[in-house]
Amino acid sequence: MADEEIETLDANPNNTEIPFNDVFANGNNESEIKKECSDESDTFECMQSGIVLPRKSSFMSKDGSRRGHSRKKTVSFSSMPTERKIATAQDCLSYMQQGSELVKVRSNSRQYHRIFSLNSDMTEVRWQPTSKKPHKARIPVVSIKEVRSGKTTDALKNKEIAGIFPDECAFSIVFGDNFESMDLIANTPDEAHIWVTGLTCLINTNTRTSTCNTTTPEALEEMQQMRD
To answer: CA-to-CA distance for 174 and 181, rounded, in angstroms?
Structure first.
C-alpha cells in the first residue's frame, strides 16, 4: 500500500494533498512546499490557501525499510486567529474584559461556576449568573486591597478544596473595609496569572491616580512590563 501511495504522488506532482511530517519519495514535493511556505510561520497561511495537510502517515521505501525524516514540519499555533496572545498588562486587561469562567469557592467549601469579567471602563469586576441584584454582584476596583496568588485563605486551604485544584490555579481578591475575600479557581495557571497581573496593575495604577475615576492609557502603559 505504501508503494502505491508513493507512485501516485510521483505521477501527480501538482497534487494538493501533501503528507504531514513525512519524507517524500521524489524529493521535489517538499521543495515546492518550501517555496510557498518560506518559513515555519507561513505554514498556517498555506493551510488557508488551500493546501491540505493530512494527519500523520508513514512511508516505507521499496525495500521495506522506513525512510528517515529530512525535515519535521510543524504548525505554529501562535498564528491561529483564535489565539489570544498575552504579552503585556494591557493584554491581561483585555483578556479579563472578554470574561473567564472561574470557580467561586465559598467558606463552606461550596463551589460555583461563574463568568467573571472586567467592565469596559475597568472600574469593576463582575460575575454572572447570580441570585444577587446586579449592583451587588460586583467588586469595585478601588475597593480591592490586594490580590493573592495560591491557596492563602481558609476557604482555599480547606481539605475538600486543597486536594482537588492545583495551587497555581487559585487566587483571592481581598476587598472592602472588612477585608472580605473572593476566592477563585482558574482553569489553568496561566489564566490565574493573567487575573492576578491585571488586577495588580489596576490596584497600582489607581494608587497613583487616586484622584481620577478612570484608568488612563498613559498610566496603563507604565505598567505593561509587569507580566513576565
So the answer is: 5
Please report which helix (H) or strand (E) contains residue 92, including its range: helix 89-98
Domain count, the chain: 2
What whole-number distance in Å separates Cα of residue 106 and Cα of residue 172? 11
Task: Identify the CATH number of the domain in which residue 164 sits.
Answer: 2.30.29.30
Residue 42 and residue 127 share a domain: no
| Residue 36 covered by a domain | yes
For residue 116, the one-letter residue type is F
SS (H, E, C) 65-82: CECCCCCCCCCCHHHCCC
Query: How many residues can be counted in the chain?
Result: 228
Choose among 97, 100, 95, 88: nearest CA to 187: 100
Contact of 102 with 185, CB cutoff 8 Å: yes
Q: pLDDT tens per residue, the chain (228 residues)?
A: 444 443 434 444 454 444 444 444 344 444 444 444 444 444 333 334 444 444 443 334 445 544 444 433 332 223 333 456 788 889 999 999 999 999 999 988 899 999 999 999 999 999 998 887 878 899 999 999 999 999 999 999 998 888 889 999 999 999 999 999 999 999 999 999 999 999 999 999 887 766 445 555 555 555 444 444
**In terms of residue numbers, what domain contains 26?**
2-79
- Domain finish residue from 20, 55, 79: 79
The model's pTM: 0.57
